[in-house]
Structure formats: C-alpha cells, structure tokens
Amino acid sequence: MAIRARVTRNQWRTLVPAALAALMAVLVQPTGAQAAPAAPAESKPVYSYDAAIRESVWVDTGIDGDSDGRTDRVAVDIVRPREPAQQGRRIPVIMDASPYYSCCGRGNESQKKVYDASGKPVQFPLFYDNYFVPRGYAAVLVDLAGTNRSDGCVDVGGRSDIQSAKAVVDWLNGRARGYSSRTGATPVTARWSTGAVGMIGKSYDGTVANGVAATGVKGLRTIVPIGAISSWYDYYFAEGAPLYDSGPDWLSDYVESPEARARCGAVQQRLVDGAPRSGDWTRLWSERDYVPDADKVRASVFAVHGMQDLNVRARHFGQWWDALAEEGVERKVWLSQTGHVDPFDFRRGVWVKTLHRWFDHYLLGHDNGVEDEPMADIERAPDQWSTDGVWPPGGTRATTLRPRTGEAPGVGTLGLKPARPGSAESFTDDPKLSETDWAAQTDTSTPGKVGFTTRPLSKPLRLSGSGKVTVTATPSTSSAHLSAVLVDLGPSTIRDYAASGEGITTLPERTCWGSSNSGDSACFKETKAKTADVDHTLFSRGWADLGNYASEYTGRPLTPGEKYTITLDLHASDHVVPAGHRLALIVAGTDAGLIDPPASTPRLRLDLARTSAKLPLVGGVKAFVRATTGVPPRATAPEDGPLSGVRDPRAARIPSA
Q1: What pLDDT was estimated at residue 319?
Q2: 203 has catalytic annotation
Q3: Please, which residues bridge with residue 615 across strands?
Q4: Burial letters for 582-615: b for 16+ Cβ neighbours within 10 Å, e otherwise?
Q5: Residues 509, 527: Cα–Cα separation, whole Å
Q6: Within the chain, what is the greatest distance between any pair of CA atoms?
Q7: For the chain, first and last CA: distance in Å?
Q8: Is residue 340 among the annotated active site residues?
Q9: For a tag site, which of 29, 200, 423, 526 has the least CB within 10 Å?
C-alpha cells in the first residue's frame, strides 16, 4: 500500500474536523482578504529555559491504594516556558510518568530528580525539558503512586500505576483536581495547558504510556513507548515458563519509597498471591494486559524496541503492534539491533530530530509530513538503517517450514517438505546450557538440543514480524520446558547486545541537546556502537512450559510417555539472512539465564512430522524457494568446530534505566 494511501482511524478523527474548518474559513472569508499565513513546519527555541516556570503540583488520583482513608495524590513536577503564560497562550505537554525518579534514575547516566531547599524542582532527568521547553512545550514528570513524593502504593502496571498518569492527563484537561501541596487544600489548575499530551518513556515508563493509552483517555494525542511492556504476564512468564525467579512484588518493593514500603504490605501481599510462580493466568494479569484494549487507543504510537532486548523482550512490541494495526491506530516504529537501550544512545541526532517533528505534528499541529514518511526504520547492521513504507512490508506471508532428520543425530534439515511419519529426534534438558551454547554447536550432535538448517542460501531471505513454532513432544517426566530459537549461520558484525552496554559503549565526550542552566545541563555523554564479529546470529526466540499444551495460560502435569503438542510464540524481529548463510531452527529445553528450569530434567522426543515453524517471510513460499535453489556464494564461515557468537545472555530482573 502506498504511504499516501495509508489513512488510519486516528487520522480520520482529525482530518474530518480539519477539512470542515478549512471549508468554513473559505466560505466566510471577506472579499479581498488575504489568506492566513501557513503554520510553521518546526517549533523553534525562542523561549528562555533559564527563566522557565518550575513548579510542583499534587494531582488527586481518585483512588485510595494505601487504604489510609484519603485518596492518593501523585507528585507532578513541571517545567514550562514563562513567556506563553505571560502572553495568555496555552502550550502542549510532553510527559514521562516513572517509578524511577528517586530510586534508580533515568537515562544512560542514571539521572534523578533534584530539588532545592524549598522542594522546587531544579534538575529533570533526560533532555526533554532542555530541548522542548524553549520550543514551547511543558515537560511534566510524574512520580507514580508509592514512589518519590507521591502517596499510594506501587502495583506494577495495575490500576494504581495507570491511574497515577491518567489522572494527570485528566488534570491537564480540566477533569481532575490538583493541589499546591501533598496534604493541603489549595487548588491548582492547568489553565496554561492546551490539554494535548504526549507520553514518552523507556521500559516501565513506556509501559505506563501503553497502559494509559489503552484507557482511551481524551487529550492523550501520542505515545512514544521505548522498550515497553504490553502485558505484564509476558514479562514474568512465557506460556507458563517462569522468568527471572521473581515476581511483581520484588519490583514493587524495589521502586517504592521507604515510607510507601512501610505502609503497603497489603498491596505487596496481593501481588504475591495474585502472581503464583506456577505460571497460571490470574485476574491480576488480566488487569495488567493492555493488548485487549488496543481498540480504545486514541493516540498515535511511535514505538521503539531493541530486537535483542532480553529484558523487555520483543514479543511485547510485536503483540502490541499487531493489535494496534488491527484497530487502525496510526503508528511508527524503530527496531534496533540493541538490547534494552534508548534511541538517544544509539541514534542520537536522528532520534532528536525525528522526535521533535513527531511532537510538533501531533501536539502542535504542524503540517510537517512526518505521518506520511516510512512507517519503519530497521537497523540492519551497526549504525546502518533501512526503511519500509509499512511494517511488516507488503508481501510478507506466514510460511510453514518443516524439520527433517539428517545424517547425524540431532542435526537435520529445514525446508518445505514434511518429515516422514514416525521420524523423530530427541534431546535431554540441560539447565546449564543457553541458546548461545546451542547455536555454537548447531552442526554438531549434542545431547542438549536438536537443530535443523536450510542449505546455504543463493539469495537473501528476509523474516519480518512474529513467528510461531509448533512442537509435538513426548516427555520422560511430568514437567518440561521448551525453547525455540532462530539462528542466522554465517559471519557478520553485530551489536554486542550481551555485553554490559547491550550494544553501546559510553564515551567521556559530551554533546548538548537544548538549553542549560546552573542546575540542569543539556549535555550528555556520547556513545558509539559496541560490536562483535560473529559466526552466527540468534535473532528470535520463544519459550513455553509443555504443561501449558491445552491452554497458553494454565498448566497441568504431564504424563510421561504421552505426546503433547504446543505452539511457542517467537519474538518479533526483522532480519535478513544473507546469501551464503543458512537459516537454522533449534529446539531445546531450559534456556539458561532466561527461563527457569522445570522441576525435573526430562528427555524429550520430538515427532518431526508434527513439528513445524510458521515464519513471516517477505515474499512467502516463493522467496524461500528462490533463496534455497541455485548456486549459493562461497561460504566464509568455518566448517568445523563451534561457531563464535556473543557471550551468554545476562538475566535481567527489572525493566529499568
């Protein structure tokens, strides 16, 4: 579909009133009158950052999360230009609602809010205030309930978290009450606000933006979720398989203020009771799943996600994106090769420029064409990007590939032809081995995994979107976990997403983005790509508890010796397997460092005739046939021994920084 033909539900909401207004303007224009000047294409830094108004307001959320007999108030710190208020003009808002402003900090330098002796905000983390306040925006940073200077309790993506931010959007639109202090009765209104709000944030902050958008609150014009969660169940579990050896109570305790921690024991216990480590779906997870409410989203969405994010995994982006697409929500995406990294730290100059134009369009109404530009930017190699008019691109088809036995045990082929009935391969779960261990031994018979590869490709093969792997397995014990990973077998230079910077190196040099004053610098440490030369690249994975075979969200004991069929959801990705490389599917048990092992150590026998991968191939079956026939280029990867790759994945417990 051509870009200019891409009119979404959100665009119709604004196009029709705008068209009527333009028509009326023409009809009532006096004879000889000159047309009004065109709206500016870009906001300029014409206001004083040093003279900006800095204030704090406490907004009533309307709920009593800590059960102290009064409704909770959340602290809202604001920086806004003074001049528009003096001139009687209203301005839009860029808002970041977070639990991390006092416990952990934000950004690559872990900046926290800083106040003067009277409690007035002096330093805001990140560059949003420095850059956008001089351009006519207000920067609003919200302490979620139970954190920093707010009342209430942290409930990890539940009603309290989401209402913390939604109430502020309501206050900015005149629908909620605000006060000059945490306990006082002096009201404060936001007469300076147009009511147009854009929410932005990485990780937990972006998750809250997703949740608020899913309420359909009026006034929220756009959200920019970066590495954000779309369903909290999928943060802690993967189809019943537990991750991180922790639950939401741990995270709540981690981010809460000391005083909230002392009064919020009941909320903590509800988090424990509602999130059993069995992996079964409960009402707690229903409240924290935003995907079913994509039909309520009024805001446009500019999503950013690292395809190698092993903290907030790309499944979160993929299922949210697909739901938004089905509802016709206007949207844009950047997909990087990094892990859990902000685009300010992997594509800084382009990011600031693009974000500026995005907010100018959706919050100031500037007709700058950003909504007609390519929908997707994809990082193909470190600092090398391509674009797509729509994403996944046109012609992408779910294509079924099937594993077959090969000449050596556990080393088979992957293609279109199904395996013969009765064909099987077996492996024994080894909780000490990770996906990197398996991939390094793809072509070697090892007891802990089975692998299936295509022949060397004669043409590049692109996978774009979310895939699935269906496995029919017979376990030897009453519990079993499964992993499926996709691997590009061939040499490449990639971002080293498993290193401490998750694909970036922080440099001592600084560059400045906006205005500074004595209390808040606009200058931040530069970064560069941290790369690794590898012989193979893992680019998508999925996990499940085989006991969830009958229901994605409810497990049951297995009967040893019986066959079970389950489908594993692979994380969204966009990867090109070059000519000369091979595509591999690996099936194994516990992915060490990423999922927790089962109660037993099963041996699993795969029925290959009933095992398959449904992958999003650009060009579908025809593209696969073209890529797997003909004469491939000469391979340059070593033919014998393990394939080098990134180090083992690091387990991450919280969606932070």
Answers
A1: 98
A2: yes
A3: 399
A4: bbbbbbbbbbbbbbbbbebbbbbbbbbbbbbbbb
A5: 9
A6: 88
A7: 37
A8: yes
A9: 29
The number of beta carbons lying within 10 Å of the beta carbon of residue 259 is 11
Q: What is the enclosing helix (H) or strand (E) of 491?
A: strand 481-495
Question: Please, are residues 487 and 538 in contact by the beta-carbon 8 Å criterion?
Answer: yes
The counts of H helices and E strands in the chain are 14, 31
Q: Positive or negative CA dihedral for 65, 67, 70, 74?
A: negative
34: confidence class by pLDDT, cuts 50, 70, 90: very low
- 252 catalytic? Reply is no
What's the number of CA atoms in the CB half-sphere (13 Å) around residue 484? 28
Residue burial 369-385, b: 16+ Cβ < 10 Å; e: rest: ebbeeebbbbbeebeee
Amino acid at 407: E
Q: Which of the four pLDDT bands, split at 50, 70 and 90, describes residue 336?
A: very high
Catalytic residue (choose from 43, 150, 300, 340): 340
Got the DSSP string for 177-189?
-EESSSS---EE-
- φ, ψ for residue 77 (rounded to 5)? -100, 135
Distances in Å between the Cα of 306 and the Cα atoms of 343, 379, 542, 610, 648 are 9, 10, 16, 32, 17
pLDDT score, position 527 = 98
- Residues 603 and 474: beta-carbon distance below 8 Å: no
CB-based contact 601:477 (threshold 8 Å): yes
Q: Which of 72, 96, 205, 309 is catalytic?
A: 309
Structure tokens at 584: 């591999």
SS3 track for 537-564: EEEEEEEEEHHHCCCCCCCCCCCCCCCE
Strand 91-98 relative to strand 138-143, pairing: parallel
Other Cβ atoms within 10 Å of 505 Cβ, number:
15
Q: Which two tokens stand for residue 38?
A: 């065109």
> Which tokens go with 120?
């007035």
User: To the nearest whole percent, how much of the chain has pLDDT over 70?
Assistant: 91
Which structure tokens are listed for 213?
A: 């958008």
**Tokens 């802690």 belong to residue:** 236
Cα–Cα dist 320/298, whole Å: 14
Rounded Cα distance, 195 and 176, in Å: 12
SS3 587: strand
Burial status of residue 413 (CB atoms within 10 A of its CB: 0-12, 13-18, 19 or more): middle
Q: Of these residues, 56, 203, 252, 612, which one is catalytic?
A: 203
